[in-house]
Write a structure and sequence with these properties.
The chain has 331 residues and is mainly α. 68% of the residues lie in helices and 0% in strands. It is built from twelve helices and no strands.
Length: 331
């Protein structure tokens, strides 16, 4: 009986995270279209529902009702499995994200390593889709994506190391609590900027959306997908955006902590602060798409290997040296 109650409780907590997350993901697409519309002096979605608020639901219903077409030359099992892998990996990363003090599904001591492992596995769904589609455009998009994600994961890992040695823990809740006096965005501001650009590349977002380059690859690795298979890639991309925004908020922006421990701010619940910070990082994703042109692929690789990698490596050395010199290494 106790085991059944435990399972029911875990399922309830999972649904408590997953359902609002998928609703939020749907409305990130609405917010993106509205913000880009405003930046380009147009209205964006306006027809379905008041102010177009039901547009994401209409899009979801449309994709759900369309026919799933599997190319005759495709590997059918891998072709169907690939979008499921992408979506599931984007969802299970939230298991270790703390929404407040003690408000986390799995409060493990190596939470940041778990997130690194999940983000590293995300490329498999795209590679599987590109290979199984039996299309040159899809395969080239998958190769671009794998090279791109591997390149920028290295700099992301080194940036996270700088934060970890400052906080002295791999537990995400403890990293947040270590910022109670000073958010890490201030001492690590150069790494915060590199981290923002790196997660743009890691999630294949503009201006680093070379794996989906419409001009040369006709949307790349998902060119052969339709209906819910395409929708799962779409959902996975936006779910990864929200997950990366949450990681950025926890590592650099104090997670659920308010900016100042004063009366009007400290009565606002912690999860609200985390959501506001996630929205801030998501706005950077959207504004970047509306303003910057797409990089060439050689520029993308040069930025990752010749600029971000040396800078993040030097920053690890400087951070370690500073903490040792001033004897501020956490116990």
């Amino acid at each position: 009986m106790d085991e059944l109650l435990y399972i029911v409780t875990i399922v309830f907590y999972i649904l408590l995270i997953a359902v609002p997350l998928m609703i939020a993901m749907a409305y990130v697409t609405y917010a993106e279209r509205k913000v880009i519309g405003a930046m380009q002096l147009r209205q964006g979605p306006m027809t379905v529902g008041p102010f177009g608020l039901l547009q994401p639901i209409a899009d979801g219903v449309k994709l759900f009702l369309k026919e799933t077409i599997v190319p005759s030359g495709a590997n059918k099992f891998v072709f169907i499995l690939a979008p499921m892998v992408t979506f599931i990996l984007a969802l299970i990363g939230w298991a270790v994200i703390p929404f407040g003090a003690g408000m986390v599904l799995a409060d493990i001591n190596v939470g940041i390593l778990y997130l690194l492992a999940i983000s590293s596995l995300g490329v498999y769904g795209i590679i599987m889709a590109g290979w199984a589609s039996n299309s040159r455009y899809a395969f080239l998009g998958a190769l671009r994506s794998s090279a791109q994600m591997v390149s920028y994961e290295i700099s992301i890992g080194l940036i996270i190391i700088s934060v970890l040695i400052t906080a002295g823990s791999l537990n995400l809740s403890e990293i947040v609590l270590a910022q109670s006096g000073l958010w890490y965005v201030i001492p690590h501001f150069p790494m915060f900027m590199i981290f923002i650009v790196s997660i743009l590349a890691e999630t294949n977002r503009h201006p680093f959306d070379l794996p989906e380059d419409e001009a040369t690859l006709v949307t790349g690795y998902n060119v052969e997908y339709s209906s819910m298979a395409f929708a799962l890639f779409f959902l996975g991309e936006y779910m990864n955006m929200i997950l990366m925004s949450a990681i950025c908020s926890i590592l650099f922006l104090g997670g659920w902590l308010p900016p100042f421990d004063i009366f009007p701010l400290n009565i606002i619940p912690g999860p609200v602060w985390l959501i506001l910070k996630i929205c801030f990082v998501l706005f950077i994703f959207i504004a970047t798409r509306a303003t910057l042109p797409r990089y060439r692929y050689d520029q993308l690789m040069r930025l990752g290997w010749k600029v971000f990698l040396p800078l993040s490596l030097v920053w690890v050395v400087l951070t370690s040296g500073f903490l040792v010199y001033f004897d501020k290494l956490p116990n």
